[in-house]
Amino acid sequence: MSDSRQNVEAGDFAAWMRIQGARTEAALDAALPTITTVPCTLHEAMRYAVLGGGKRVRPLLVHAAGEVAGAAPEACDAAASAVEMIHAYSLVHDDMPCMDDDDLRRGRPTVHKAYDEATALLVGDALQTQAFVVLAESASLASLDAAARLRLVVELARASGSVGMAGGQAIDLQHVGLAMSLGELEAMHRMKTGALLRASVRMGAYCGTVDEAGMAALDRYAAAVGLAFQVVDDILDVTADTATLGKTAGKDAAHDKPTYVSLMGLEPARQLAEQLRTTAHEALAGFGARAGRLAELADLIVLRSN
Ligand code: GRG
Question: What is the pLDDT of residues 140-162, one digit of tens each?
Fold first, then answer.
């Protein structure tokens, strides 16, 4: 895969996103077993869950942080694929009847609807382990030393597990129909959604080189965009329609879930998202033009319509 970054004029964010999106699609395609590999139905369902949909925000964050760190785009492809596989697994499991019970994801029937529940469970399980196969085996990470490669594995494992995404999901499920303070809501979302977004930024940086102060600045950026992503998700759940979202709108209220909108109101939630965007931009100040894509991604995350 050739590095097309140089071909994109500075500031041409839409073209950059298209190029990174195509890179991610190709890298995921290559990293997933083919549909003729036994068990064929499981592999077909894994590919259905991952390929041809989604905004690819996490892979974009990996590549943008990689640009700050001077990382090889090929190394970022592997890290981006691994993060997106974990994200896709979380969506497949989240949509199952035992969790959020949804029929629509990325504008298509959810995996347990297109296949069946047992297949959906196994798709999530297998995508989770495949993510770590990619980090351990990918030739495009061969330029990294063993310690850096191990950091990628630990970063993704921690962000996905019981002190990250899975733990946040557990807290979320425990609080359906119950009151939650804003502090508790924030802590839950920092785990459930924020941890993987933060890991995306840190893994992009680990694919290259960033000093301690730089990593702390990237962490401040990632914490702000991670929370902003969820605040905006809560806003869109009440303001956008199902066709635009590609998933069922209005589900938070229907499930009686505490959200930023239900706790703060719509306008204060919008102001919070805007404040977080400013915080994200401020965190990048020391990087100059190298962090241009990260700044544009903060704008995308806050100003998105789906
Ligand atoms: C099942 C362990 C486990 C965890 C599930 C992330 C998650 C935890 C569930 C998803 C529920 C949800 C809708 C959360 C709101 C924020 C979010 C992660 C939205 C989906 O991510 P996008 O918008 O999706 O990046 P696309 O399809 O664009 O990739």
Answer: 999 899 999 999 999 999 999 99
Q: Which CATH architecture has domain 1-303?
A: Orthogonal Bundle (1.10)
Q: In terms of pTM, does the model score above 0.85?
A: yes
Using the atom order of ligand 1, give the atom closest to the CA of residue 306: 23
Chain mean position to CA 60: 9
Reading the block at residue 45, the tokens are 């369902």
**Residue from 86, 91, 156 whose mutation best tests the ligand 1 pocket (most atoms within 8 A of CB):** 91
Bond from prior residue into 97 cis (ω within 30 degrees of 0)? no
54 lines ligand 1 (CB under 6 A): yes
